[in-house]
Amino acid sequence: MADMIILILIIGYCAFLIYRNHKNKKNGKPTGCAGCAGANCTGGCSACLWHSDPAPDKN
Known about the structure:
Elements: H1 2-26
Organism: Candidatus Eisenbergiella merdipullorum
Transmembrane segments: 6-22
Keywords: Membrane, Transmembrane, Transmembrane helix
């Protein structure tokens, strides 16, 4: 019984994501990557994962 509840929740969440993506596309909002908070994020979504350390620790 618990497996069915988990499966229903996963399917519902996937349906919600598809609906939200369709709604955003219909309203002209960008879909996919939401952007990056960093100032040096010009390479797309994957570039947001890589942050350079400007001042490495001095041991």
